[in-house]
Design goal:
Layout lengths: L2 H16 L6 H16 L3 H5 L2 H6 L3 H8 L5 H7 L18 E5 L8 E5 L1 H16 L14 E4 L7 E2 L5 E3 L1 H7 L9 E2 L2 H4 L4 H11 L5 E5 L2 H14 L14 E5 L7 H6 L6 E8 L2 E5 L8 E3 L5 E7 L28 E8 L6 E12 L2 E8 L13 H14 L6 E8 L5 E8 L7 H12 L1 H7 L3 E9 L1 H10 L15 H11 L3
Parallel strand pairs: 1-5, 3-6, 3-7, 7-8, 8-9, 17-18
Antiparallel strand pairs: 1-2, 4-5, 9-10, 10-11, 11-15, 12-13, 13-14, 14-15, 16-17
Helix pairs in contact: 10-11, 13-14, 14-15
Length: 506
């Protein structure tokens, strides 16, 4: 085998041994908080909330919770971040170099998250830790001799009138890759800078046979479309005909399981799927063990985490945080329980509610799974459907119909009689006259709260099936096509009506 692959693999094993003996999660997180507070104590935010006094207290974690309120994007942006475009030292020393645009999956207008030098360094550090963990998987040396394809959003960033560059976080990352990344990074900066999604993927498909791809990273829906387009362009049976060393897929952005069957269909040999929690707010967690897709929290990379129970102690029936929720530290969480994630970071986010719900799968090390978004909690009439429960129901429905369903959207809407029903839109080639009845029965059997709701205020469900082309055309009409785009699984009634109107057009 090539000497390079052996050297890289040996280097990862040595690095892993050198990183043994880390502090406990609680101590690591206390250190992170103190470092963040110390770096930001002379900012406007740090002075306003008394970071210097918090650092002097006997219990900085408790003092931090007492003095600093919990922020969501709207409050953080309106009260603090908007001032960073013209002033230094607002929530973090200096000014941010970039703003990451993210509409996320809420369907609202774009968020603008500040991206600092320290934040970029933090994301690279988490990425390095993920790479170092690959020694656990015992991959062959051929993987470390191959190239990595990252399907990002456009690296052609916009420059606003105040001199800041803006784009999606994946595009910002790619645009800041050092030149030596060109040795292994594909599709390269030139193709990554193509703004139009279809043109970018066509360029990837054209050059695909020239590359030796061993690993791919990106959101499942768009990676799958890219692989299918490459296979179609070169009349292949599977992607392994041109990329025999393709062994690893780093997923992220949305749950992978509804895509697994279709990924298996385009691959000749099994691939290892790793999950990543990489958001505009940070590279928060990654899969580090071969026996699970749970993700290890990045506890030592410039983030301080807090956790709010995703139950009556932390949220109301619509998924909004209580005014005074119970807040727990990393040493107080429990395996199998769901929590709303609260983040403080070296981008100048402080006690920031990202909007994600996570569940702990282990505590040594702390490993999590994302179970949904707080606003993907469909509970208008007490049905209590989390994204994870809906994913499982869709997988079971697909299995019953011997097909695959990758994407779906659902909303609580009112029928002609003014009563609530659930309107579902499924994306796939599903042929059945009884989809609504089947899905209804699956949900009733799996979720007693849903069954109770169906016997009372939730008067029925309706299911409409659309093709993949209709789905991507809809995304294009909303300027949400390609790259790192995620679409909401739980929609407002207004968004659902807009979708239904679009797909009803000839």
């Amino acid at each position: 085998m090539a000497i390079i692959g052996k050297l890289v693999k040996a280097g990862l094993e040595i690095t892993s041994k050198l990183t043994l003996g880390e502090d406990s999660p609680r101590i690591s997180q206390e250190k992170q908080l103190k470092e963040l507070l110390n770096q930001a104590k002379n900012t406007a935010f740090g002075k306003y909330y008394g970071f210097e006094d918090i650092l002097k207290s006997d219990d900085p974690v408790s003092a931090f919770r007492k003095e600093v309120p919990i922020f969501n994007y709207q409050t953080m942006h309106e009260q603090w971040w908007v001032r960073q475009e013209r002033l230094n030292d607002i929530t973090w020393p200096g000014k941010p170099d970039f703003f990451a645009r993210s509409s996320g999956t809420t369907g609202k207008s774009s968020k603008r998250i500040p991206i600092t030098k320290e934040f970029m360094s933090s994301m690279r550090s988490v990425g390095s830790s993920m790479i170092n963990s690959l020694h656990e998987f015992d991959f062959p040396e051929s993987l470390f001799e191959s190239e990595v394809l990252m399907l990002s959003s456009s690296a052609n960033l916009d420059e606003n009138e105040k001199g800041f560059k803006e784009g999606e976080i994946s595009g910002i990352n790619v645009s800041n890759f050092p030149d030596w990344y060109d040795i292994f990074y594909r599709p390269g900066k030139d193709i990554a800078a193509i703004s139009d999604w279809d043109q970018r993927v066509n360029a990837i498909a054209e050059q695909a046979p020239e590359w030796n791809i061993g690993a791919i990273a990106g959101i499942p829906s768009w990676v799958l479309l890219m692989l299918q387009r490459i296979i179609e362009r070169h009349q292949l049976n599977t992607i392994h005909e041109i990329w025999p060393n393709f062994q690893v897929y780093a997923s992220g952005g949305v749950a992978f399981e509804t895509y697994r069957e279709d990924f298996e269909a385009v691959c000749k040999t099994p691939i290892k799927v790793l999950d990543t929690y990489l958001a505009s707010e940070g590279f928060i967690a990654y899969t580090c063990k071969p026996e699970t897709m749970a993700m290890k929290l990045a506890l030592t990379h410039g983030y301080f985490f807090e956790f709010i129970p995703f139950d009556e102690r932390g949220i109301n029936e619509t998924g909004d945080l209580l005014s005074d929720p119970l807040v727990l530290g990393i040493d107080e969480v429990e395996i199998g329980k769901e929590y709303v994630l609260i983040l403080s970071s070296c981008a100048g986010a402080w006690r920031y509610a990202i909007g994600d719900v996570i569940r702990f799968e282990s505590l040594t090390p702390p490993q999590i799974k994302i179970t949904g978004r707080t606003k993907f909690f469909l509970n208008v009439v007490g049905s209590q459907l989390s994204e994870e429960k809906m994913d499982k129901a869709i997988l079971e429905l697909a299995e019953k119909n011997k097909t695959s369903i990758n994407e779906y959207m659902v909303a609580a809407v009112k029928n002609e009689d003014g009563e609530y029903i659930h309107q579902w839109v499924l994306v796939g080639e599903v042929k059945s006259d009884a989809l609504a009845e089947k899905l209804d029965e699956i949900l009733k059997a799996a979720n007693k709260n849903y069954a109770v709701a169906r016997s009372k205020a939730l008067k029925g469900i309706n299911v409409k099936v659309i093709s993949k082309d209709q789905y991507t055309n809809y995304l294009a009409s909303t300027s949400k096509k390609g790259g790192q785009t995620k679409t909401p699984k739980v929609m407002t009634s207004e968004k659902m009506n807009s979708l239904l109107e679009f797909i009803s057009q000839p």
